[in-house]
Write a structure and sequence with these properties.
This protein has about 200 residues and is an alpha/beta fold. The protein has four helices and seven strands, in the order ααβαβββββαβ. It has a single domain, classed as Rossmann fold. Helix content is about 30%, strand content about 25%.
């Protein structure tokens, strides 16, 4: 129940605040051990810290040992430049990546679909990144479903859409590298193949 509440909080926080990428050498945000009882104002830094903690505690585990991804930008406008911005960062993972346009109907990539969706809101664009993977239900392990296992988002004006896509993809790459840095097999340990859906 606590995990569901934290995930719901993560989605709400993601929609409320733009997120920049962590600069290299920048200290990881942490949650203060105690907060004043009368403090009712949430700062931008508080929201960033909470979003980081939710990603770290709830989403990073799903990024371990990813062997290959399909990726793309879902947007009503021309997405060639946005796909390129996404691809440039994903190449740092050194795993096979497949643009959505190369996938065939009824096929799926090895480990998931990484999508960036761009929705117009009255004064900006709501840009979100989702990793959709095939997972099994705990109550019925033989039941395989698609689920969002990683999510982040930010607001962006039209002029900065490339930057928003780049930043969200960069944070995803940082998180994948973090999830895979402590021992275990390399993310490219197995050669990815397209599988038919069952």
């Amino acid at each position: 129940m606590k995990v569901k509440r934290l995930y719901a909080l993560a989605v709400l926080l993601a929609a409320a605040l733009p997120l920049g990428s962590l600069q290299s050498g920048q200290a990881e945000p942490t949650i203060a051990a105690a907060t004043p009882a009368k403090s009712t104002t949430t700062t931008t830094e508080d929201l960033r810290t909470r979003r980081h903690v939710v990603r770290r505690d709830l989403m990073l585990a799903s990024l371990k040992n990813i062997r290959g991804l399909a990726y793309g930008v879902i947007c009503p406008d021309n997405t060639a430049d946005l796909d390129t911005a996404m691809e440039q960062k994903l190449k740092l993972l050194e795993i096979p990546i497949f643009p959505f346009k190369t996938l065939k109907s009824g096929m799926k990539p090895v480990d998931g679909l990484l999508e960036i969706k761009i929705n117009k809101v009255p004064t900006a664009n709501y840009v979100q990144i989702n990793l959709i993977q095939w997972v099994s239900l705990l109550r019925q392990p033989r039941t395989e479903v698609r689920a969002v296992t990683y999510h982040d988002s930010m607001l962006s004006d039209d002029a900065n859409l490339n930057k928003a896509v780049y930043q969200l993809t960069e944070q995803f790459v940082i998180d994948v590298l973090k999830a895979n840095q402590s021992g275990g097999p390399s993310p490219q340990a197995k050669e990815p193949l397209h599988r038919k859906r069952s």
